[in-house]
Structure formats: C-alpha cells, structure tokens
Amino acid sequence: MKVAVAGCCHGALDKMYETLELLQRRHNVRPDLLLCCGDFQAVRNEADLRCMAVPAKYRHMQTFYRYYSGEKKAPVLTVFIGGNHEASNHLQELPYGGWVAPNIYYLGKVPSLWPGPCSPGPGVTGRPPCSAGYAGVVRFRGVRIGGISGIFKSHDYRKGHFECPPYNQQTIRSAYHVRNIEVFKLKQLKRPIDIFMSHDWPRSIYHYGNKKQLLKMKSFFRQEVESNTLGSPAASELLQHLKPTYWFSAHLHVKFAAFMQHETNSKEELPKATKFLALDKCLPHRDFLQIIEVEHDPSAGDSLEYDAEWIAVLKATNSLVNVTQSTWNMPEKNGLHAKWDYSATEEAIKEVLEELNHDLKIPCNFTPTAACYDPSKPQKHMEPVHTINPQTTEFCAQFGLTDINDRIQQAKAEGSGRGEYEEEEEEEEMDSTGSAEEPSDYNTDNSGLSSINPDEIMLDEEGGEEDLSTCSVDPSPDHPPDFSTSFSDIRIMPDSMAVSSDDAMDSNNEDLEKSGVSKQEEEKVSTERPLKRISGDENGNSGIKKIKRRNQAIYAAEDEDKTD
C-alpha cells in the first residue's frame, strides 16, 4: 500500500491535503494512509492557542478547526504524533489516543501508571509519580505503526506528566517533554514494528546517511554532529531496541535519509535494518511529503485497529496511580525491584483478543469536546479547561484502565485543598533548569537542536519560535515534490553508536545524496544567506542568555525570509 509521510504540518491541513490531491491529478498517486511526524497543531479555538508554547505573536488559527467542526473531512486516513508545538490541552484529553476529527487520529499519550515497586529519585518520599506518556501503537491493513510524541529534555526525563491546563510558563513547555516511562513501555514490545515515528531525530542517525550533504545544507549542525549530541538519546535507545523497518522524523526542517543495519544479539537472530527518513516542514518548494510503498496484508480491512500486544502492555502496567512531579526510576533487573519485565505474554495477548471478540477495529467515536473557532465571532479571551474526553472514558471502561485525566483532576483538587499543588508548582519553577535534581538517565540536555537553525521552530527554556503562519504550502507546477528515496548505503556501527573520526566515507554516499535531498533543496542551499553564529558567554556557559540570543537570531532570519 502507498503511505504518505509528512513533516511538520503546523496546522496547514488544507495545504497538505491539497498537495495530495494534486499528486493524484498529475501523477495518479493516491496514498492509502497519511502519517504526520509532529507539530500537527490540532487547534480548535482561541483557548487551544493559549496552550501552544509559542510567543503570542506567532499564534495563528490555521485550518484544523474546519475539520474539527465538520466543515471539511480529511480525504485520507491521517495518523499523527505530537511535536513541541501543539495544543497540549487538546491532545491531553486523549492519553490513549483517539480521533481529533473525523478520519484524523492522534496516536496518543500512553497513561503511564506507576508500574509496581519502582524506585523514586533520591530524597523522594511517599507514593510514586504517575506520568501520561506520549506514545502508542496501532495497526492498519496489517501494518504495525508506533510512535512517541514530544522532544527530549534531560531535566524532565525522569518526571511524571503532572501537567494540566491552565498551564504556567514551565508546564506549557514540560507538557510535551519525553519521559522515561514512555521509553520503558515501548521497550516492553517484542513483536516486530513496521513503522515508527518520532518528532526529534534519534541521536547518531546522521552517521548512517550522507552527513556531508546534511552539513552542507545545515552547517550550524556541525558542532552537535561532531560531538554526537544532535537528536534524542531516548529515541536512539528505542531505535536500537525496536529495530523497525521504517523510522520517520521531522523537527529539524530538513530532508535526510539514512540506513541503519542493526547488530544481531545472537547467531540465531536474523539481521534487521531500519530505513530512516526525516521530512522538511510545510513551505513552498520543500520536500515535506514522501510517498513510500509498504507491504501489507491484502486480507486486512481498511479500518484503523488496536494493537493487541500494546493493549496488553497497558493493562500490565495499570497500577498504583499517583500524580506528582517527583523524579523516579524505571524498574530494572538490579535486585531493587520485585518485577522489571512488563512485556505481554501470549496468554495476555490472547485475553485481549477474546475481550474484543477478535474485532480490533477502533470505533469511529469522535465527539467534539470544545467550542469550535468562529471567524465571525472571535473570542480572544477564551480560557482553557481540563476536559475528560468520552473517547478516553469508553476506552478505559473497555480495557479496565485508569483515566489519567480523571485522576489528575482528583489529585489537583485534593492538593489545592491542602495547599500542596501550589507548592509543587513553585518547586517546578525553581527547578526548570534541572539543577536541583539528580541528573537524567542521559548526561546531556538536547531536545534535538542546540545550534542556531534559522529554518527550525526551536523551543528552549525561554521559548523562542518562528512565525507559524508561514507554515503552509502550495506545490509549484514547476517543482513537483520528489517521491523517490533510495536507501542503498549500509553501515554497521556498534550499539554505542560512537562518532567516527573518519568522515571520508561521506564522499561515497552518492545514492543518498541524490535521494535524501531534492533538487529544490539544492537550489535553496545556493540561494540561502548564511546566518552568523552566536556563541555563548565568555565563560562558555550555555544558559538563558545564550538561548535568548539564539532565539532572537531565529526570529530575525524568519523575518528576513518573509521580506524577500
């Protein structure tokens, strides 16, 4: 079957679907499924805009609300993950995934309950925290599709997802930071994954593609590439564990292809490889869309389906719910935990199938839960509220799971009565840099980009983003999208994925150079004006001042682009 993969959509659904329709008219190509790798921006109204972590001047309604209201319907089944520019209050309603509009499915935030006797961080007492993990797995025509939403920040990695609207300056950002529980749950999967999506790139993936061409297009990545700090270490861990056939990402706003040959753990294990592709953002003359041919089950139906193993993992970890922002550790086989393996047994998977009478079809039970934007009656002062979505209520009742939003509301009410909730928020504000807590599982703090990228919507602790109103695309008749990508360059690297000092092999990557970057992008490289790099302070610190200067440079570059 044909699968269309899109990069950062930024709410420009009309333009994205118009591009697909243009493909059908001109090239007789009609995809069966559309995947979007984050920054989808399912914004329904003005309150949702207030929950999106961008400066006020960059908050634009875009076109999703037309699909939410029923004015329009997505012409192709669309499945998406969250990025770092989302209406977090809307997506938080669907911790197990669900329909945000007819024919548009959010892959979900796995309600990550405290799975047994895990150990909290040093100095943490009381009940362990709960988090709402941004991940999920579904099936379509027999193809298994998984994903993890958000971006990596080490200082939030070991916390629970305690955030809920109305958000403050800290929680509006931390709400979409990847947590260790998400990675833990996904690592319980044993059956093969066909397609996996993440918003930020797996760290080190650039060593498996045409790194030379990447740095030619994005020279400001050089420092992070050479120090092996570009991308998400959590996503890299999942890549090595899940070994999916395809892995798609976005976030860095550049098209890049790579091929990773995985090491085998035993002589009996068959070799596996992953075809990686990062997509550009939605702008004219950009390769933000890719069509791939994926093997599928011809006998399978055309409905989106639950994944039985994933449901079994959720059921196995549904215990001891608590909603705090304390740090905590995942269970390990280290003598400290009574249980550390939460993978699904064949018996547990069979039980799920029996509960569903072997009908895994996800019900089309979309229900609006908020007023839709009306251009004739703007409500600029609409406030966000924490909503319980009936889709989540139905899902939890069907599988005996806990509705994390219901529990968060209870905990917030109880905590406010004792004055604890406000105290926790103050604690979070003081701890926003992560300096007051034990280091993360990973010793670096990179959300996927720490250099100046004039082409990227980057979120740092002080929150600097580009103008989202530019993120729409009309395909040019003279420059149709390039839909051919080759993955002929194979490299085998150890699990450590250490940086090779020998970059000479980049010169041999002609296939990837031709396929990973389109002619449109090459033309843009020659016409782009370079952006002067802004370094840290004299002491080499990379704190708030550096972040602010970096964001100012990004805004300046975006404004220059608009005036050209």
TrEMBL record:
Residues 260-405 form the Lariat debranching enzyme C-terminal domain. It is found in: Nucleus. Residues 511-536 have a biased composition (Basic and acidic residues). One of its GO terms (cellular component) is nucleus. Its main location: nucleus. Residues 411-564 are annotated as: Disordered. InterPro entries: Calcineurin-like_PHP (IPR004843), DBR1_C (IPR007708), Dbr1_N (IPR041816), Metallo-depent_PP-like (IPR029052). One of its GO terms (biological process) is mRNA splicing, via spliceosome. The keyword Magnesium does not apply. One of its GO terms (molecular function) is RNA lariat debranching enzyme activity. Residues 441-453 have a biased composition (Polar residues). Residues 421-431, 457-468 have a biased composition (Acidic residues). It comes from the Eukaryota. Its cofactor is Zn(2+); Mn(2+); Fe(2+). Keywords: Hydrolase, Iron, Manganese, Metal-binding, mRNA processing, Nucleus, Zinc. Belongs to the lariat debranching enzyme family. PANTHER family: LARIAT DEBRANCHING ENZYME, RNA LARIAT DEBRANCHING ENZYME. This is DBR1 enzyme.
